[in-house]
Amino acid sequence: MLILTCPACGIAADETELHPGGEAHVARAGPHASEEAFSDYLFSRENPRGVHFERWRHAMGCGKWFHAARCTVTLEIFGTYRADCTAPPEALLERIRAARPGWSWRDFK
Q1: 20: helix, coil or strand?
Q2: What distance in Å separates the CA atoms of residue 68 and residue 61, rounded to the nearest whole number?
Q3: Helix, strand, or coil (residue 92)
Q4: Binning pLDDT at 50, 70 and 90, where does residue 26 land?
Q5: 76 near 29, Cβ under 8 Å?
Q6: 80, exposed or middle or buried, with CB in 10 Å at 0-12, 13-18, 19+?
Q7: Per-residue three-class SS string for 39-64
Q8: How far apart are CA 24 and CA 89, in angstroms?
């Protein structure tokens, strides 16, 4: 069972109190985007074996959205952070790199 700490209210909640929201940090297609760009936005997602950044909602608690970094193989939770962040915090990325030497993910700008 996953237990994630909501960064908004600080409560450690198990997955029955949360609602998954898919991959975090997905570039949204604007209203004037091409059909191809909109299709990519809807259907193209990373599905890595390993560390993954996801969106979660504390549905049975404060109701806030947040992001979590976890391993899809071992279910290890590396940390959570607020949903208004455009990239994972550097401290979280360092924690992941320390646990998974050689790990890399997309570049955040």
Answers
A1: strand
A2: 16
A3: helix
A4: confident
A5: no
A6: buried
A7: HHHHHCCCCCCCEEEEEEECCCCCCC
A8: 13
CA dihedral 44→105→8→60, nearest 10 degrees, is 50
Q: Looking only at Cα atoms, what is the longest distance across the chain?
A: 42
> In degrees rounded to 5, what are phi and psi of residue 97?
-60, -35
pTM for the full predicted model: 0.87
Where do the domains of the chain lie, and which CATH numbers do they carry? 3-99 (3.30.2270.10)
pLDDT tens for 41-84 read 888 887 788 999 999 999 999 999 999 999 999 999 999 999 99
Cβ neighbours, 10 Å, residue 63? 12
- Strand 65-71 vs strand 51-57: parallel, antiparallel, or unpaired? antiparallel
- Determine the straight-line distance between the first and last CA of the chain, rounded to whole angstroms: 33
Question: 34 by DSSP, 3-state: which?
Answer: coil
pLDDT class of 106 with cuts at 50, 70, 90: low
